[in-house]
Amino acid sequence: MKPVRLALVALLVSLPSRVSAKPPEPDVILERVVDGRGNRVADIAIASLKTAEGRIRIRLVRGLSRQDLVLRHEARRGPEGRDVTVDEIRLGDGMPLRFESGATGGRVTASSPVSSFRYFDRDVGRRTVRCNLARLVEETDHFLLAAVADYVEQGLEDDGLAPEETAIFTLRAVEKRMPSASAPVRKKGPFPPDLPEGRELRAAALAALSEAPADARSPG
Amino acid sequence: MKARGFALALCLLPLGLSAEGPGYFANLRDRTYVEVDESFLVRERAAPPGAPPAFRLRHLVLRVKTGTGFTEQRWWPIRSLFLVTMRADDRWVAEIDADTADAEHPSEPRSWVRLSGGKNAAAFEVFSTNDAAGGDGERASLASESPCGGTRYRFLGGGVEIRDVSAEDVRSRTVAAVLGEIRDALYSPAEILDLVRLKELGVSPRVSGPPAMPNLASGAHLAWNYLLFDKPGPSRGEPSLVLVPDPAPAGDLAPWRALTHIPQDLAPFQPLPEGPLR
Predict the structure, then answer these.
(1) Any idea what DSSP says for residue A125?
(2) N or C: which end of chain B has fewer CB within 10 A?
């Protein structure tokens, strides 16, 4: 009788750790942005996942351009114990433009599949940084700047800058555009639950969330 | 094991040589003429009479005949070189080039400033684009704000590079950090002390160099000014170094060829009477 009771106690003690070993569930929020007449402008999926290693957020924008605009933000602890933040922006399945930074105020490394450039955040408005970022964009995806401009012009930015929008904030400084005469009317609301494309949008965001960052992927 | 090391060295050799880019002297390899060749002893102002010079300086101004030869002489590229010999026989070359010959291809990088010593060189190149779009008012103002328009610079050395630098950003934190990295990758602390000393050197354009190019000689200071921007500059009072003509024969340029890439045959430059502009 005694060994049976001992085994039961051991099982009860180990139960919480077994429960916590279950992989964390990602949070997904779906939104639809419409114009003043209620016509769809874009659908947005925001997926986030918090793990022991860090935090990942994905913002996937569908309908803005021909391919999904995917923003990825990852905050984690680097190999030397310092905090590392990696932001990526890409169109569809294309290669991303990547921004990696360490401590606040430190240098940011922007990398295309071809080359990289290091700069300080406070110099983003300078022509040297803007020109080098423009080159990296060309090396990554010619249509990326236009997608960023559309994102800003359509008023899709989060009310407070969301962490995954860092790449948008940086790249919109590259090309100064004529401001539009009047800001478009945009309304953001929850995605209609009865629409079947919501499932695809959710799946696309979860797929982007589960991808490894660009530096861990093999080229091509 | 030794053979493997030798093979590795052979593999790494081109990497080292290509650190400054293959094209710096690309436009400067044609027939070259000597316009100025003057030698100086550089002495400490406070040094007692008879004391050895702090270092020797030879100032060369070369003209490079480009292309078919139809280009007017006045547009031939100019190379102004300071050949500096330090006390320990260390050699430094600070060069500034003015290459205006190929105005049709301004976006091609042109050699501008080069600072070399030992086996290392920092090279600065310049290029420009004329993408200022037409238009008026706000549209024209935005065009002039084009991030890659106008004159831009490229700084490289020691495997470090920054390109597309606008002149107004040279003192920005982003550019200054890279210039500091180039300097630290190329030169030891002792060499940097030598460079700081050289930075004090003031060669008046009236002392050396043709009168038609008054700013060129002093332009050689650009290399030091960019790479040693965070070091104390020359004092505003009297310079601590003075130049006196060197009575000794200037000597062969052969020991300088590895640093300067000067062609073998150098003819004297004979200025032609200036014709009408073409």
Answers:
(1) T
(2) N
User: What are the pLDDT digits (tens) for A169-220?
Assistant: 999 989 877 767 777 788 888 888 888 888 999 999 999 998 876 665 544 3
CB atoms inside a 10 Å sphere around CB A203? 12
What is the predicted pLDDT for the residue at A207?
A: 93
pTM score over 0.90: no
Instruction: Choose among A131, A130, A138: nearest CA to A113.
Output: A138
CA distance B226 to B222: 6
CA distance A33 to A188: 4
Residues of chain B positioned with their CB less than 8 A from the CB of A130: 147
Helices (DSSP H) in chain A: which residue ranges? Answer: 2-20, 127-140, 144-153, 166-171, 197-210
CA distance A112 to A218: 14
Identify the contact set of chain A against chain B, taking CB-CB distances under 8 A: 107, 117-120, 122-123, 126-135, 174-178
- Closest residue to B174, CB basis, from A120, A134, A178: A120
